[in-house]
Amino acid sequence: MSNIHHHLTDATLLSYSAGNLAEHMSLVVATHLAMCPACRKRMEDMDTIGGIELYAGDTMAVSNDIKDTLFAMLDQPIIMEEIKVADRKSGDSDVPQPLGQFLPDNLQNIQWRNMAPGIKQFPLENVQAGNGTVCLLKIAPGVTIPEHGHGGTELTLILKGSFSDEVGRFKPGDIADLDENTEHQPIADTAEDCICLIATEAPLKFKSLLPKVMQYFVGM
Ligand SMILES: [Zn+2]
Fold this sequence. Notes:
Largest sheet: 6 strands, antiparallel
Number of strands: 11
Bound molecules: zinc ion
Helix content: 25-40%
Distance between the termini: 36 Å
C-alpha cells in the first residue's frame, strides 16, 4: 500500500488533464503523479468519463444516473501496488523524475539560499511561473512558516521530512492542494529538515507585518 495520505483535488486533476495549468503548477502535479498511484488511477478514470461524455455528445444525453454511478465507482477504494522504485527515482537519485531535470541528482547537493532564520530556498528559475512562484524550501526542524492565505491555488509537495498544519501531517509524497480560501501555518516536524516543492499561482498573503517585509525581499 502507498503511504501517501494527502492527494490532489479533482479540480486540480481536471485542470491538469485539460492542459489548463501553468507550467510551474503542472510540474508539481506531475511530480506528485509520479509518486502516487492513487492519483494516477483517478486521473485515468476521469479521462475515461470525459471520453464517454464526449462520445455520447450529440447523439444521446448521458443520464445523471449513469454519471452518478460512474462517479461512485471513482470513490471506491482501490488496491494499490507498492510504489515501484523506478516510479520515483532514477539510479541513486532521491529526486522524483519530472523534477529531476531542474535539480542536481540528490537533494543534498542543492545550493540553498538563506531566506529567513531556519528557512532556505532554491528557486526553479527555468520554470515559467507567471505571477506566482515555484521553489524548493528547506525548513529546519520545528520552524514555522508564518500563517498565510493565498491569492490562488498553492501546491506543496513533500520530498523529505514532514510538516504539520491545521489539516494534518504531511510526509514524503503527500501534497497540500490549497485554494485561495484556505489559510494555514505549516510547522516542520522536529526529527529532521523538511524539504518541499511549492508552487503558487499568486503571491502569498501573509497576515502579519514581519513576513510581509520578508516577502518584499525574497519575492514570494
Ligand atoms: Zn495522490
